[in-house]
Design goal:
single chain; alpha/beta
């Protein structure tokens, strides 16, 4: 009889070497993700890791699970299809603030309200790093270090956790890449919580936003139990400074799963492709 041994974080790392810039916060997120996957103790073949386009969206290639590198802004649509077709899989989605909140903003809204059981991790660095430093949806209006917006954008930024709450996400958390142990814990809690879980990770881009090194001095733990009602969560987030970390909201809406999808098996799907 073969005894199945528990997998370690190293078992969830692929042989592909990350090519992020030295000092990028995404390295810590990758470490936190592999530790979280080991703690979840889900077989690698039962995990689907989906991403879009951008620096952070490379992360599935660096993990040793099934992955799909999608097109710009469409990761959540792909992930929802995977989960509805294969309810038995653990589905995790990764992306950045540009990929998820600009071209992917429409999908983000509807993923929150549909409440399919999957976990979305946005590595937010408030800049388009892959395309050389343009302002992103979460960039503050007075950031003027980009050649495209030398006087700042003058546009109010998207507030990811507030948007997620208003749109109906069932679990909302925020972490900081400089605290990978907390990020790992948030990922574990998000995956285990039923429905659509959203985790914003403040992940500094020291190449185009070197001032983000100071985020380590600005982040602070919530110190409160997660809000369990939208009213309570909205009240708290109304005065949030954007640097509060921890689980901010844990709702109790049932996850969306059509009955016909729940009855589908891998054998059923394979039969449809038999000529």
């Amino acid at each position: 009889m073969t005894v199945q041994t528990a997998l370690s974080a190293q078992d969830f790392k692929s042989d592909v070497k990350p090519i992020w810039c030295p000092g990028c916060g995404d390295y810590a997120v990758l470490s936190a993700m592999t530790k979280a996957l080991a703690e979840l103790d889900v077989p690698r073949e039962q995990i689907a890791f989906i991403s879009g386009i951008g620096c952070s969206s490379r992360i599935p290639a660096y993990t040793n699970v099934y992955g799909f590198h999608g097109v710009h802004g469409r990761a959540l649509a792909i992930a929802a299809g995977v989960k509805l077709a294969r309810p038995d899989l653990t589905v995790i989605v990764a992306g950045g603030d540009g990929d998820g909140l600009s071209i992917g903003g429409n999908h983000f809204l509807h993923a929150c309200r549909r409440n399919v059981d999957m976990t979305y991790v946005i590595m937010d660095n408030e800049v388009y790093g892959m395309t050389k430093g343009q302002a992103s949806p979460t960039t503050s209006p007075d950031w003027c270090n980009s050649k495209l917006t030398p006087e700042g954008t003058g546009i109010s930024p998207v507030e990811p956790v507030r948007l997620a709450l208003a749109a109906g996400a069932n679990f909302i958390a925020r972490g900081f890449a400089g605290n990978p142990a907390e990020v790992s814990r948030l990922i574990v809690e998000g995956v285990r919580h039923p429905g659509f879980s959203f985790i914003q990770i403040l992940s500094p881009c020291i190449t185009y936003r070197p001032e983000e090194r100071e985020w380590r001095n600005a982040v602070h733990a919530s110190g409160e139990q997660p809000a369990q009602s939208m009213t309570e969560a909205m009240h708290r987030l109304a005065s949030d400074d954007g640097f509060t970390t921890g689980v901010l909201f844990a709702g109790n809406r049932p996850a969306f799963m059509p009955a016909r999808a729940a009855k589908a098996t891998l054998a059923d799907i394979e039969r449809k492709f038999v000529s």
